[in-house]
Amino acid sequence: MATVQLALLIPERATDDVAALTIRDVARLTRLSLDTLKSMNLAGDGPAFVEERGRVRYTADAVQAFQHKRSAAHRRLMAGSGGCS
Which site in 13, 25, 41, 59 is 20 to 30 Å from 7, CA atoms measured? Predict the structure, then answer.
């Protein structure tokens, strides 16, 4: 369900094969701060990105895969700690 909601929020200019999403777009979609995303990018833990003319860009597919990975990790964490999933 989260993937469907995320797909509805992605700007029309971002097709699956075009890296058109900015870091601000991704921050809004993932509800992460710009600083958190920048740190994750440096550590290699963020969504896959490309640099175009010195600017970071993301594909819609990369953001959706990142969200799916984060959701799965959260479910595992909650299941392991006895929390709700």
Answer: 41
Query: Could you list the pLDDT tens digit for every one of the 85 residues in the chain?
Result: 444 445 545 555 555 557 789 999 999 999 999 999 999 999 999 999 999 889 999 999 999 999 999 888 778 888 887 655 4
Report the predicted TM-score, pTM, of the whole model to 2 decimal places. Answer: 0.68
Tell me the one-letter amino acid at 1.
M
Decide which of 1.10.150, 3.10.20, 3.40.50, 1.10.1660 is the CATH code for 2-69.
Answer: 1.10.1660
**DSSP β-ladder status, 50-52 and 55-57:** antiparallel
